Amino acid sequence: MVRLRTPAGTRDVLPTEAAELRVIEDAVRLVFRGFGYGEVVTPTLEYEEVLALSEEAALLTGFRMLDEHGELLLLRPDLTTPIARMVAGRLRNGTPPHRIYSVSNVFRRISPQRGREIEFRQAGVELLGAEGPEADGEVIAVACRALDSVGLEGYRVGVGHVELFQALLQAVNIGVEERRDLLACLVEKDFVGYRLVLDGLNLGKDDRLALLDLPEMRGGPEILGKARTLVRSRGMEEAVAHLERLAAVLETYGYGDRLLFDLGIFRNLEYYTGIVFEFYAAELGATLGGGGRYDNLLARFGTPMAAVGFGVGLDRIHASVLEQGGDVDSGLVLVLMPGAHSRWVKVADLLRTGGVGVFALPEETDEEKMFTLARQKEIRLLVEPDPMAQGEGWMVRDLERALESRCFTDQLVEEIRRISAAGDVGMA
Amino acid sequence: MKGLCIALCRGAVFEEVASLLERAGFDLSEVRSNTRKLVFDAPEGTRIITTRPTDVPTYVENGAADVGFVGKDVLMEARKNIFEVLDLGVGYCRMVFATPSGVDPSLETLRHLGTFRVATKFPNIARSYFLERGMNPEIIKLHGSIELAPLVGLAEGVVDLTSTGTTLRENQLEERFQLHEITTRMIVNRVSHKMLAPQVSGLVSCLRALVEDSE
């Protein structure tokens, strides 16, 4: 027998989960639009040679295939790079800033033993052609508003600045190869290996201490004061000042308390040039998402332009909200209705127009099947003609609770809503 | 302040890790006395769980434990997405390639068949070590008594841990080269590392001081 498998790291999303994910996605989209971000949809397949212009090795390890001309195609590995490609091409002559959002599935080849997904849905925004702490702050604030909008609580935003560490490496006299080794350890989050590489270098005491301390600095605003003591160059000075101004911007949005300064954030993409950030929920062992400033990426596609953006995993937000006992109900009231696709089509349409979903059943459906369906489809209400009334009378029954009510056609939508709400109160 | 959930494994290195933690101020008397229990709630919200060594990185990666203590061999084999923050310096041993003593049979087989067979509990480590050096041996995953494999012709050599070399010698195996040196590491969940930064940093610097003291 053929086993009806899906590839490891992929899964089917069934109606309950899909409906909840949709609620989250809709809320997030609404926030993005409220800040003036316009949606774009880029192709699921890209030419490998075009995305390779990004010089981002981590993106090119994804799924590849050949088209009929033998050209290498790549399944969309992230949201940012295709948008950078699109803006550098199609919007080259447009007037910045460009505010762009997208929600798409992205594909990564992830070592199977980690049991992680190879296809997952991300939502992200990119603010292109805008610089400074205000632009950085806006993007982080959009993300926070999006997390707020789905009811997530207690999340934190870790913010660092890649220039701090880069500038320190330049100020301290270290060879290119050792630099790469040190960065590789930090990206791998291997502080033991990092110390080992440092131990092998011939460094002054102060330089060694600075390199040891900086990546482990994380906490409140006091961290920036500590970082100042390590400043060796104008670049570092500016990076610290930038973070301070960013904090002030986020304070005005009301997100000052969410910030965790973290000078040890090293995301696995090399295209970041300024701030980098990640979102954490205590309930989840993994990050919700993250982003940063990538001012050099568009130049690699031929149109130099400053840019900052983020992506968050909708599945991860969903899991965190559920873990917190949050509400991801779409609020759509759905009813079972025997005969809705034969004798009662008009009445069913009346309900649908009134915002009530109707799940049609054959007229002769027996009681037991009705209850089974109600349970499996998570539909609580049954609408059927009232046997006691003549003609226009209806009966609305709550199959989970002993609730029922009778009414005429013109009151049916209202009555369904009333019974449904009464049931919800009963649940609470 | 929320306490940390710490994953420990019982076994050879437990004593050394436990005594470090005790010197760092944790009360492990119940963990020591009750070897059947798996979860121990300590004061100030600290919680200690005991698992198999190979499960420690899994608990930590998924955030079921904030912090864990486990050998570098397990970490390298599991390749989890976690922070590795401190080398405790305890539990020292070496991961080596060994073959039956005398003429190295793996070289013989390599010459005649272009490949050879390696039995190991650490297939990922062994494979990447050989691949990086341009060799592509057949890796045979075993779960215990690795030394048996070359004795009965299942493999030409083994990749295994050794501390004194006694087990290798007793089975007429000879160390050919060392792959890695192994010690116990402290690992941290990537979100706990940020959300519980004061607790994590406190524990790291306390343990680091103890480790550096004993060096």
Shape of chain A: elongated
Q: Determine the CATH superfamily of the largest domain in chain B.
A: Periplasmic binding protein-like II
Domain count of chain A, please report it. 2
Mean pLDDT of chain A: 91
Fraction of residues in helix of chain A: 25-40%
Largest sheet, strands/sense/barrel of chain A: 9 strands, mixed
Please give the alpha-carbon distance between the first and last residues of chain B: 32 Å
Instruction: Classify the beta-strand content of chain B into a percent band.
Output: 25-35%
Global structural class of chain A: alpha+beta
Strand order within the widest sheet of chain A?
1-5-6-12-11-10-7-9-8
The count of β-strands of chain B is 11
Largest interface: A-B, 24 and 26 residues
Low-pLDDT runs of 5+ residues of chain A are none
**What is the CATH level 1 assignment of the largest domain in chain A?**
Alpha Beta
Principal-axes geometry of chain B comes out as elongated
Please explain how this structure is put together.
The complex is a heterodimer of chains A (428) and B (215). By secondary structure, chain A is an alpha+beta fold. Chain A folds into two domains: 15-323, BirA Bifunctional Protein, domain 2 (2-Layer Sandwich); 333-427, Anticodon-binding domain (Rossmann fold, 3-Layer(aba) Sandwich). Chain A has helices at residues 15-34, 48-51, 80-89, 132-149, 162-171, 176-187, 191-199, 205-213, 222-228, 234-253, 297-300, 314-323, 345-353, 367-376, 412-427; strands spanning 38-39, 45-47, 64-66, 72-75, 98-107, 119-128, 156-161, 218-219, 259-262, 275-280, 289-293, 307-313, 333-338, 356-361, 381-385, 393-398, 403-408. In chain A, the strands form three sheets. In chain A, strands 1-5-6-12-11-10-7-9-8 form a nine-stranded mixed beta sheet, with helices on both faces. A five-stranded mixed beta sheet of chain A has the order 14-13-15-16-17. A three-stranded antiparallel beta sheet of chain A has the order 2-4-3. In chain A, β15 (381-385) and β16 form a beta hairpin. In chain A, α4 (132-149) packs across α10 and α6 packs antiparallel against α7. With 215 residues, chain B is of the alpha/beta class. Chain B folds into two domains: 5-91 and 183-214, 3-Layer(aba) Sandwich (D-Maltodextrin-Binding Protein, domain 2), CATH 3.40.190.10; 93-181, Periplasmic binding protein-like II (D-Maltodextrin-Binding Protein, domain 2, 3-Layer(aba) Sandwich), CATH 3.40.190.10. The radius of gyration of chain B is 20 Å and the shape is elongated. A six-stranded mixed beta sheet of chain B has the order 2-3-1-4-11-5. A five-stranded mixed beta sheet of chain B has the order 8-7-9-6-10. In chain B, a hairpin with a 5-residue loop joins β2 and β3. The model of chain B has no long low-confidence stretch (mean pLDDT 91). In chain B, 36% of the residues lie in helices and 28% in strands. The A-B interface holds A 111, 113-114, 156, 158, 189-193, 195, 216, 218-219, 260, 262, 278, 280-282, 284-287 and B 61-64, 78-87, 124, 185, 189-195, 197-198, 201.
